[in-house]
Design goal:
It holds the Pfam family tRNA-synt_2d. It is found in: Cytoplasm. Its EC number is 6.1.1.20. The protein has 339 residues and is an alpha+beta fold. It has 2 domains: 89 residues; 228 residues, Bira Bifunctional Protein, Domain 2 (BirA Bifunctional Protein, domain 2, 2-Layer Sandwich), CATH 3.30.930.10. The chain is 42% helix and 19% strand. It has 12 helices and 9 strands. The strands form 2 sheets. It has a 7-stranded mixed β-sheet with strand order 1-4-5-9-8-7-6, with helices on both faces. β6 and β7 form a beta hairpin. α1 packs parallel to α4, α2 packs antiparallel against α4 and α5 crosses α11. The longest helix is centred in the first third of the chain and has 37 residues. The chain is rod-shaped.
Length: 339
């Protein structure tokens, strides 16, 4: 029995020394000390040992178990230390490598241009007013002197929800809503998204943004309009910028005009950017039509006013010299992070 126990212990210690990982070590522990292990089987055979020899054999079994358990713990610690060292080597952080930079967003070119326009007009005493994008036909057309049979309704290619409700084609309805409130005088701009059934190309989109302005007060003249837009152009495009007014027609203003500014690339000499003319068109404007004032409950004999409107995308394209409107909406970070 003593020789058998010695053989079992030597075999166990040899296997423990040869174990290469914790999984193998656990298998060895089960093989020798488990319920069906070799040392356990020796204990089960104690009934066959003479009563006077049982204390001696029991002591030998306990000594063998203690020696095996001690060696198992020692090997377990050694393998655990080795595993940690290998893990540390695998997970070593090279502090000389550049860190991963977080993706930080910033304002869109449209937003930058809008903030600049709003800053200029707020500095002149204007307020910023917003209104619904889904609008009544009355506010979008009729209250702006565009009746049902007016050709301007066809020119704008409107998205209709039903016969009375549509997606607004301009932000002018906001002006009408403010005039109806009757709180005079009025100095406001109305920025926002508008919708027209246009094909997508370098200069058109079915969804874009406008900024429209309105001033209503006593003794407002075309000179006030010219002075306001001249100052706006100087602040937006540079102190040396000049403006030119060309006669035009809008149903809701009379007289009406298109406004050009001197090319900020060539100073008016003529270049590729302004197509050799020296001028760039930026907006439309005019004196508010008396009928529009009357429909909003304002007496045109007492009050007068002017209105103007510009495309936000056009301002952004001109200011940042972008040649394709689609770039503003393609969400290409290579383009957007330039601003």
């Amino acid at each position: 029995m003593k020789e058998k126990l010695q053989s079992i212990m030597e075999e166990a210690l040899a296997q423990i020394n040869g174990a290469e990982n914790l999984e193998q070590l656990n298998d060895i522990k089960v093989a020798f000390l488990g319920k069906k292990g070799e040392l356990t089987s020796v204990l089960k055979s104690m009934k066959d040992v003479a009563p006077e020899d049982r204390p001696v054999v029991g002591q030998l079994v306990n000594d063998a178990r203690a020696a095996i358990e001690e060696k198992l713990e020692e090997k377990k610690n050694a393998l655990g230390k080795k595993a940690r060292e290998e893990q540390i080597k695998r997970e070593t952080i090279d502090v000389t490598l550049p860190a991963k930079k977080p993706m930080v967003g910033h304002r869109h070119p449209n937003t930058i241009a809008l903030d600049e326009v709003e800053r200029i007009f707020i500095g002149m005493g204007y307020e910023v007013v917003e209104g619904p994008e889904v609008e009544y036909d009355y506010y979008n057309f009729e209250a702006l002197n565009i009746p049902a049979n007016h050709p301007a309704k066809d020119e704008q290619d409107t998205f209709y929800v039903n016969s009375n409700i549509l997606l607004r084609t301009q932000t002018s309805p906001v002006q009408v809503r403010v005039m109806e409130q009757g709180h005079l005088p009025i100095r406001m701009i109305a920025p926002g998204r508008v919708f027209r059934s246009d094909e997508v190309d370098a200069t058109h989109s079915p969804s874009f943004h406008q900024i429209e302005g309105l001033v209503i007060d006593k003794n407002i003249t075309f000179s006030d309009l010219k002075g306001t837009l001249a100052e706006f152009a100087k602040q937006l495009f540079g102190e040396n910028t000049k403006v030119k007014f060309r006669p035009h027609h809008f149903p809701f203003t009379e007289p009406s005009a298109e406004v050009d500014v001197t090319c900020f690339k060539c100073g008016g000499d003529g270049c590729r950017f302004c197509k050799g003319s020296g001028w760039i068109e930026i907006l439309g404007c005019g004196m508010v039509h008396p009928k529009v004032l009357e429909m909003s409950g304002i007496d045109p004999k007492v009050y007068s006013g002017f209105a103007f409107g510009m495309g936000l995308e056009r301002i952004a394209l001109l200011k940042y010299e972008i040649d394709d409107m689609r770039l503003l909406y393609e969400n290409d970070t290579r383009f957007l992070k330039q601003f």
